[in-house]
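Q: Give me a protein?
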Amino acid sequence: MKYNATAIQQHEAASLLNRNYRLTKKNILGDGVKLCRRAKAHNTVNSNTAQIAVHQHPNGNITSTMHDVALCGNAHLCSYCSSVKAAHMRNWINQLLMSAVKKEGLLLGLLTLTAWHQRECDWSKFVANFFSALTDFYKAMRRDFDSIGCIGRVRAIETPIGSNGLHVHPHDLFTYKAGTDMEAFKKIALKKWKSALRKYGLRCSKKGLDIMVDGTFDPNYIAKEIASHDTKKSSKSDLKTMFQLLDDSARGDKQASEDWIRAAKAMQGRDRFNVGQLANKLGIPSPSDWKKKEGEAKTEPANIIEYPQSQHLMATEPNSQRNGLAMILRTARQSLSNNMATIEIVEALCKDYTKQRLLNTPIAAAKALERNINTIEQLFELNAITQEVAEDLIERAIVEVDLLQQLKLQEINTKLQVALTPQRHVKANAELDFS
């Protein structure tokens, strides 16, 4: 996992969600990413202190992670939670699912379904229709799946975006018995998939359904493909993952920002990974109930860094112009046991954000003035006030804003001197429960 890149993507996602809310006054489901790795865990016993655990691994690598924090769990919008869930799903498929399927004398196939799409359409409506068609397809195919020995499926949803818009498609890993005429099954499935799509105003070509059968690929590759994190470097098309769009957005690409919000709205409330009843039918724990066996004993952190939680929230504020979490974790890794270096970065980020807010105050006042003048002009056009009254009101509004701006600008230096004079906390090699 690229820690800095992941933290930067989280910050950009939170920033875009905040910006969208200011414009629309509506939240997008999954906006918990704004607090992911920022807020404390719900069961914390130390709610007032932020903690960073720095690990030094046997191979020489040094990693830093936020400890005792809340995770949003959104695998579509949050790059951190997506990578965590994908790795867990991949391990579950490799270590449990494949052996359980083999024990039942079954094989594994991979079904991929797509539909024709275009950039100009309503992405939210397209996604809703696509999943409605997907539900109808599986209902129509129930007996067909039963006939080939399918007892369930594992689903992973991919949502890349390109010149033709949102290319949502599921990868379904399904079981089937040996001797199945998969070509005949594929013809039936394609016909019923096209029928389900037509019902909701969608369509596809013969490439809209693809089935890979057991024995034509490496089983480990299946697990990596179906549970892969969005880390694909190249493609024959111009498709980009939602996390690649966040990278572009962070570099100032406005189209990437708009596409990410459109996709986030379209996919809100939908799981990226789902196993249905397959685990139960195979008699194995579901991914949410299963915990990977550790190959070696966990190593205690080489260092623990603590500072006030209130500072952590401010230093990692999504509205800040700086990627606070990435800067904090990078400093913790590079400094290892030099706690003061990390704490000083946190304090500097807090002061910088305070300065940003103070400097933006006159801008906010100017925007309020513009709104007030527009209102006064509208009242005049409606003959609700005379021209003399309108001119007097506008002049008074301008004077008030000028005075406010002067006062705020004078206060900035004074406030920055006294703002955020934090009590520094340093703690190394603390005994914490990392179970």
